[in-house]
Amino acid sequence: MAPRPLSPALILETALDILDHEGGAGLSMRAIAARLDVKAASLYYHVRNKDALLQALVDHVAHELLGDADLTAPWRELLTTMAVRLRGVLRTHPGAAAVVATKNVSPEVAQQIADRLGPPLAASLNTTTDRALLLAQSLFVLVAGLALAEFGDVPHEPVAPRAFYDAWFDLAVGTFLDGIDPP
Amino acid sequence: MAPRPLSPALILETALDILDHEGGAGLSMRAIAARLDVKAASLYYHVRNKDALLQALVDHVAHELLGDADLTAPWRELLTTMAVRLRGVLRTHPGAAAVVATKNVSPEVAQQIADRLGPPLAASLNTTTDRALLLAQSLFVLVAGLALAEFGDVPHEPVAPRAFYDAWFDLAVGTFLDGIDPP
DNA sequence: TAGGTTACCTAACAGCGTTAGGTGAAGGTG
DNA sequence: CACCTTCACCTAACGCTGTTAGGTAACCTA
User: Fold this and answer.
1) How confident is the model over B33-67, as pLDDT tens digits?
2) pLDDT tens, A21-57?
């Protein structure tokens, strides 16, 4: 069985996989390399350093976030969808939550998202794109923070049942959305 | 000049000081020890391990958060005060933001805060203590997340001027509070 | 004065991110 | 075919990290 040749994409993929199973603490360059049947130093041919790898990981998640979302949907539906989606992503990659919350999305990706999300959201909200984006970003910060509270340090079983966090998520996101425009 | 004798409190104090000046990356047990003219291993006589030290740091911040706040104030004023206070603490200890956001407050401290804050806040909000505390916690998560976005990885100059983050803070917190009870 | 506890020390371990320099295979060029 | 370059990996090492084991002086108590 010929292993896939090393590449930035494969390394990122492997990093995410380790994050899922081992948690953030288990994510070392050596661990990634071992899973790819390679020595740690070899990774540096494809990736500048670990920080750049994590940045790429954050950008990857951010990029997937927009995905195929219907940007023309009403703002509340749109924001809810993205909040739920972010929560889903962070749930399936628990270790990634801390990374995503800690590191900012790189400017290019942020700009790209702003360009796509800003205008339709601003139109639906009947406000400026600046304000619309700031509200969206606030919501993401909130969702990421909630995820962090739920499984901040993995492996680490949550201190409360999942239903509790579901209710918390609904309350927090709902409250924030109500604040944008009361029902 | 006889140096202060080692103690958990002094170690925590020193850790916070390093966090302020060097950032999270510079916070090593050896760095703490060096600043106290002591060898790293000696710290372990007073502190179980680094994780426990960081947990104590989080609890310390959380405990200071309530401090002398006027718990009988109207809920909006009370929550605003605490949000501003948390922001202030995280601003003066930038490196601590990542730690505070990542680690949960220990159960005992959380219970202590809940006992003090829950009843008056619930009364002012005219709701259950559970809901009141969940809302308060959501706000804290939001504020911590905003701080993380502003200086997630120090040392690292913010990508936007301070005024931008001030405006963001006002908008996000204001929106959330509006969501609790529209003006 | 003897014994025990306190509060530090030295030394070491395994693991981390990262770099420098080597090496065999692949592929283009004369 | 022979040569040379470039690629994609390797070994080896550096300095750093958290942490533990065991030693050792100073102090308090009996």
Assistant:
1) 999 999 999 999 999 999 999 999 999 999 888 88
2) 888 889 999 999 999 999 999 999 999 999 999 999 9
pLDDT at A153: 66
Average pLDDT, chain B: 91
What span, in angstroms and rounded, lies between the C-alpha atoms of A152 and A149?
Answer: 5
Q: What is the pLDDT of residues A89-109, one digit of tens each?
A: 998 888 899 899 888 899 899
- Tokens for A30, please give them: 């050596």
CB–CB contact B171 A146 (8 Å): no
Considering all nucleic acid strands, name the nucleotide whose C1' atom is nearest to the C-alpha of residue B51.
D18
Contact A146 B168 (CB under 8 A): no
Q: Which residue is nearest to nucleotide C11 (CA to C1')?
A: B41
B168 in reach of chain A (CB within 8 A): yes
Burial environment of residue B132 by CB neighbours within 10 A (0 to 12, 13 to 18, 19 or more): buried
A141 CB near a chain B CB, below 8 Å?
yes
> What is the spatial distance between Cα B168 and Cα B183, in angstroms, rounded to a whole number?
19
CB A144 within 8 A of CB B144: no
In angstroms, rounded to a whole number, what is the distance separating the alpha carbons of residues A79 and A122? 12
CB distance A171–B103 less than 8 Å?
Answer: no
Please name the amino acid found at residue B81: T
